[in-house]
Design brief:
binds zinc ion, about 70% helix, single chain, alpha+beta
Length: about 300
């Protein structure tokens, strides 16, 4: 039965739980802890699915005539594992290709550079207001000419601090991981809620770094200025500043300081429980039973 419970747990952790968590607004107060919770949720769902697959294999080894449930769970887990590996590889390859094309384009369109916060920012031609970062090799913050013209020095510092926070913490890798997870699930059952929420939380985390550097008002003003003109669609290779801009401006205007210690500790505790409780409750008794069964043979 353990494998069926693990399979059920994997389904609950991959479906209803992310849907509820994506609607929660308290996570906006503790974006760092909330992102850890999202990762714990993804890993717990994956471990439960892996556990179900291992259970199915063991059942079939102990009972060579085969149990229909074990065969079914084994096939489903195998398919999911294969899809996840393929999606991870495909997202990684496509992201790096697109980033290289983007880098070549910036080389072509660069018309100058400015210094902000002690290091250079690349400026490209363009009448649209946008700012983004190119992570990885030759990491860079890129602004359009129009952005440079429309922001005051302190607003510019806020935007650059936001983009540098993305580069420093390699937020692109986190978004890449959730993009691969999203693609691994069949189109019929997947929802974009987890990926969208992780993207928004990543933006809020970078906003917290920027508000510490330049203050809330300049950052909110810069967000409004940048979201007033149409920008290229967000890409996995660079996080465009305007993603979820309205929610982020509301959050900054609310004046709530980030870093609620109690809520943060509770969220980290929830993440730790997600990773340990299923293991302790389901996997350990089952491993014990398997060890006993082999000992009796
Ligand atoms: Zn951003």
């Amino acid at each position: 039965m353990t494998g069926l419970w693990l399979g059920l747990l994997a389904l609950v952790l991959a479906g209803p739980v992310p849907a509820v968590l994506a609607r929660a607004r308290w996570t906006w107060q503790v974006p760092r802890a909330a992102l850890v919770l999202w990762q714990a949720l993804a890993v717990a769902a994956f471990l439960a699915a892996l556990g179900a697959g291992t259970w199915a294999t063991t059942e079939l080894l102990l009972n060579p005539h085969g149990l229909p449930a074990a065969v079914a769970v084994g096939v489903v887990t195998g398919l999911l594992g294969g899809r996840l590996a393929a999606a991870g590889l495909s997202v990684a390859v496509r992201t790096r290709r697109r980033r290289q094309r983007h880098r070549d384009l910036v080389d072509l369109l660069q018309c100058g550079s400015v210094t902000s916060g002690g290091s250079a920012v690349r400026v490209v031609e363009g009448q649209a207001c946008y700012a983004y970062c190119l992570p990885g090799r030759e990491a860079a913050v890129v602004l359009s000419e129009a952005t440079l013209a429309s922001l005051s020095p302190v607003e510019l510092a806020a935007v650059v601090a936001h983009e540098r926070a993305h580069l420093r913490a390699r937020h692109d890798l986190l978004v890449e991981f959730f993009t691969a997870l999203h693609q691994a699930f069949p189109r019929l059952v997947r929802s974009g809620a987890a990926l969208q929420t992780v993207r928004l939380l990543v933006e809020m985390l970078a906003d917290d770094a920027a508000r510490r550097k330049a203050g809330e008002r300049p950052l909110a003003n810069a967000l409004l200025a940048l979201s007033a003109t149409p920008v290229p669609a967000p890409t996995a290779s660079g996080t465009v500043l305007t993603a979820g801009a309205a929610a982020r401006v509301r959050r900054l205007a609310g004046g709530g300081r980030p870093g609620h210690r109690g809520l943060s500790a509770l969220t980290y505790g929830g993440a730790a429980a997600l990773l340990t409780v299923p293991t302790a409750a389901l996997v350990l008794p089952w491993m014990w039973a398997v060890a006993e069964a082999y000992a009796l043979r």
